[in-house]
Amino acid sequence: MSKTTKIPRIIKLNAIQGWKVYAAFSNGEYRVIDFEQFFDKHHFAADPLRRRLLDEAVFQSVSLYEGTLRWEAVLDKIELSNGMVFEVPFDLDPLVLYENSEPDLERNRGVKIGSLT
User: Fold this and answer.
1) Which CATH number fits domain 10-108: 3.40.50, 3.90.930, 3.30.70, 3.30.2020?
2) Predicted structure pTM score
């Protein structure tokens, strides 16, 4: 039998400050995603669609949708094999967000799990 791994998903946006998003994940962790670093690492400036997120007003319009971050103002066109074209809001894979985040030490400090000695 294969073991299934649950992908941590965002369950709550705690704050958005500048280019940082503070979020609670489904595994109980509070984490910080620094999008200034994320954009550089993933070359957002080189792609016309993703470059739109470099506008702070567009970036600040982020919302939580089905466990991940989504930007309604940035629409991507998806074309199916039958020729149908759909516009969908830009979002990011929750696993990518988790892997590119750091623990939120301030918020995690208040969470005590297990016995304290």
Assistant:
1) 3.30.2020
2) 0.84
